[in-house]
Design goal:
Layout lengths: L17 H7 L5 H32 L5 H49 L9 H8 L1 H34 L1 H49 L1 H6 L3 H54 L4 H14 L6 H22 L15 H4 L9 E2 L5 E2 L3 H4 L2 E10 L9 E9 L3 E5 L6 H8 L7 E6 L2 E2 L5 H7 E4 L10 H6 L7 H10 L3 H5 L18 H14 L4 E5 L7 H14 L4 E6 L10 E6 L2 E6 L1 H5 L4 H7 L2
Helix pairs in contact: 1-10, 2-3, 2-5, 2-9, 3-5, 4-5, 4-6, 5-6, 5-9, 5-10, 6-8, 6-10, 8-9, 8-10, 16-18, 18-19
Membrane topology: Multi-pass membrane protein
Protein name: Thiol reductant ABC exporter subunit CydC
Main location: membrane
Amino acid sequence: MTPTRSTAATVPTVRRDPLWRMVALARPRGSRFALGVLLGALATGSGVALLAVAAWLIATAATHPPITAISVAVVATRALGVSRGVTRYLERLVTHDAAFRTLADVRVRVYERLARTEPIRRFRSGDLVSRLVSDTDVTQDLLVRGLTPPLVAVVTGAAAVAFATALLAPGGLLLAAGLLLAGVAVPLAAAALGRGPGRRQAAARGDLSTALVDTLYGAPDLVAYGAMDRAVRRVEAADDELTRVARRDAALLGLGAGATALITGLTVWGTLLLAVAAVRDGTLGPIPMAVIVLTALAAFEVVAPLPAVAARLGAVRAGGERLFDVLDTPPAIAEPAGSGTPEDAGANPGGTPGGADPADGGLPRGADAAGGGTALRVRGLRVRYGPAEPWALDGVDLDLPAGRTIAVLGPSGAGKSTLAAVLLRFRDPDGGTVELGGSDITGLPADEVRTVVTGVPQDPHIFASTLRENLRLARPGSDDGELWSALRRARLDHEVEAMPDGLDTEVGSHGTRLSGGMRQRLALARALLAAPRVMVLDEPTAHLDPDTRDEVVADLLDAAEGYSTLLITHDLAGLDRVDRIYVVAEGRVLQHGTHEELLAREGWYRDAHRTR
């Protein structure tokens, strides 16, 4: 038995709190955030000092002193007013710049992870959009509102308490207690109360996005089957749930703000009573009394944002969990440590792209045919989708001679699409080998394998753009001559010529302005333009009617002539034209041989022909 290959997907990962992981994303810009904290402390400190100096100035002015006695305080008041605005602007500029740059890095990481294609298949499209947009944006929310304000509050609050204690020790202690209640106890309570609603809000946002995207993209089918009302009700229910959670979140924010205002009022009144008592005892003058009371009032500015920040932590944590669900999705393939290229399979003797023939508009003619040998060799291939799952492929052997066409035939669930996923490097084998031009594909970079092995998937994606741009996806630098040559080989040129805008014709979302057969031919033309050495046609006629199916199969096989072509199908149409047929069921090869050999032999193939 072939030993099971260990892949990256089986390596356990240590899950940390998403909040700390999100903060760690800002580490490369730690100096910028530190500067932002310093500027924020200067801004809030200026605000507290401004009110303290103003209190001293008003109280002193009541005694009618000489103007020279208060001139310094007048200048300080103006300077503090200016510095408060300037430093607040600079703090916002620095912290937002750092947060936006960090957010850009996070988006790049998410896009790069999604570009590997595996995570896209594990999330529903609407939910994935929510993770990509809303849940990614919470990184900025945490860094701007959840990182800088608490640090600023610590610095400025400590300075305010020290100043108040120097004026009146009991007043300083009371201020410290009030700031701790408003800046620590209330935020902790808000965070605890907001954990559940925050998680539900993130989930509700994802549900709404999923329901909305499903309804929009499935609108034609929903209308045709009379199910649009149910779909709309589903969207409305998801919106109602999100609204309900948002109202609860707003109530929590109001509760936090109210608790902070109550603590602020009680602390200021307590400080005033202590100061009055100190003045009566002669331990504190009237002017310092005014200063300490207004300092206490101003000090609560530094902790005012914290309850709202803490109440949002539940939603931020939930968004971070959903974000890291994407980033932590284990890859289905393990990239090799070194670099390499499938040189034998991709060599182009003629020197033109992909074995192209200049006389045929620069398109490939499949130079493997003249070279002989084996383009693709599969031995003992085993794949399954989980440790407890049955084998999707269990010891499959097949050979694709250079320049020939073979077919892999079998019922649904036989493992045919799994084979295509392995060949296109969307999955790693769990056992066995797949050799491309004599090289094991698991030792080659996935993107380089895909430049050699490509084709037409079961449900090719047609982008909401023009025919020209859909074709140029395969080779961006192609000129119109190459595009028309590809269309001719795919038997789509006459239909495009009949269109008023030709190559500039808009195909609509998912190619809805094209027929099913035209979409398949467009995907084939795109594959031909990519100049592959091995063409994989995965159920290319799965969604076509019988008449169109036979015509498309004939065109596909004509266009693929000269390539090393693997036709994956459950249908018997056109199999008399292939060089060899492999019959697969339950992940195993039951029969293989030519069309005539299999018809002459008892087995699945002949039985299928008899019941056709």
